[in-house]
Amino acid sequence: MSGPRAPKGTYDLLPDEAAQRDRMVATAAHVFAAYGYRHVVTPEFEETSLFERGVGEATDIVRKEMYTFTDKGGRSLTLRPEGTAPICRLYIEHGLHKWPQPVKLWYYCPMFRYERPQAGRYREHYQLGAEAIGSAAPEVDAEVIAMLAQLFAELGVGGLRLAVNSMGDAACRPAYVGRLRDYLRGREAELCGDCRERLELNPLRTFDCKVETCRAVLDEAPRIGDHLCPDCRAHFDTVLDLLRRVGLDPQLDFRLVRGLDYYTRTTFEFSSDLLGAQSGVGGGGRYDGLIEQLGGPPTPGVGFGSGVERIALAMGAREVPAAAPVAFLVAFAAERRGDTFALAHELRRGGLAVELDLAARSVKGQLRQAARCGAAYAVLLGLAELPADMVRVKTLAGGGEEDVPAAGLAAWLAAHPPKGDA
Ligand code: HAM
């Protein structure tokens, strides 16, 4: 059948999948609250310049992956490809530097990147992310990493590995980048075309390259870890120590420059060996220059983003019981359909999940439907042998029945929760 389809690289969530997603987000909200993070929401699109300035013109995201369009007013807008630049914009725009620092915020929203779709890689994906802005202390780096580890633990994400690196800062990085560039120029002939371009724009980006020959060249390249200034070294050592203190096992990875230009000092990434090529289940780092670069006061920050589709894959398939109604109301006489409708409304207003016939079914059809939808009880209205204000409650699983005044049905259902409902 050829009908409309969701765009390439996007997906739908059917009710069971959406229920699993809701639970993941609820768990995250709970974990993040324990660490003092508060939920914020930013627009789905921003001015394009925010990402050009924030994420970096040399990154794949800005060069190749943004969904950018001109609106009817002639403004260049871009669907959010990542969450950090918008949160920094929000921090600056609303004067959050006046709040007690660090300001700790979390978000859950879709990101749009024109990438080649494959398992675990989408053109619209959702991230759970957190940012702590306004403190340069290494405890904050360790806190966001530990918080993400805690979320993964609560969700049952398996096969995890934590890679970390330090990118240095304005004091030590420029000299290192110069050294790296000189080294790469000496071996330019062995680099792919992309890396030759990266070499001029931002040589650190060459560490992202997957081409074998480039990787071989980079294996022998000078490493930032050997060229950190004393402050960056001490910061990194403290972060590593704190992570070990909370039972994590950070592995040094000199390649971990990550795909965005704003990082300074700590970068980190969790990967899961339950995933295929797209194994990065969440990552982030420190970005002490970003707020200033976007026009705000000099302000340090650190955070992460984690793709919920990949979290779900690394959690494995979990049965989410479909939410069954407590009761299905059956109108035994056609003239009682109005009463049935009104009673269902009243019960629902009281917070009880009830269903009724919405397809003009016969009594037999309604009873069949009551069983099929998984209701614990069928409530029969309009039985000839009962007074008009009484209903009969039949227990569908296990049998048994009881006659109850319609006005007392809500109280009866509340007092008899379905078995298995703790
Ligand atoms: P990122 O590494 O680009 O970082 O994305 C974060 C996470 O989003 C990845 O680890 C991965 O789980 C997921 N992800 C990324 N792209 C896709 C995709 N195309 N399909 C499915 N999942 C994907 C950032 O975006 C930074 N803003 C993170 C950050 C926050 N750094 C500091 N604060």
Structural notes for this entry:
The protein has an eight-stranded mixed β-sheet, sandwiched between helices. It has 14 helices and 16 strands. By secondary structure, it is of the alpha+beta class. Helix content is 36%, strand content 21%. The chain binds histidyl-adenosine monophosphate (HAM).
The number of distinct helices, counting runs of at least 4 residues, comes to: 14
Average pLDDT, to the nearest integer? 94
Using the CA coordinates, give the radius of gyration.
Answer: 28 Å
The poorly predicted ranges are: none
Strand content range: 15-25%
Shape: elongated
- Secondary structure: helix percent: 25-40%
- Widest sheet: strand order? 1-5-6-11-10-9-7-8
Structural class: alpha+beta
